User: Which sequence fits this backbone?
């Protein structure tokens, strides 16, 4: 029985590791958490909540990582939204 539970737990962990949507969402959340885009902690939490609900926002944010000024303006627009 214990072996079955361990196998199931391992399978669940591995499925999360290979889920491309979860992986990109995690990358976006990490990036918005550590970047200094002039956002308050509350603003960052709001953006993280947007990422949780809207995968297109995750993709857009990640695409803008190398475009600082555009990304910052996009974040402001999302917060005003």
Assistant:
């Amino acid at each position: 029985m214990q072996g079955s539970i361990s196998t199931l737990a391992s399978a669940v962990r591995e499925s999360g590791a290979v889920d491309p949507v979860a992986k990109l969402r995690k990358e976006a959340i990490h990036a918005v958490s550590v970047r200094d885009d002039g956002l308050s902690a509350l603003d960052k939490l709001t953006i993280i909540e947007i990422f949780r609900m809207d995968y297109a926002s995750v993709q857009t944010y990640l695409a803008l990582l190398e475009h600082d000024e555009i990304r910052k303006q996009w974040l402001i627009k999302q917060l005003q939204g």
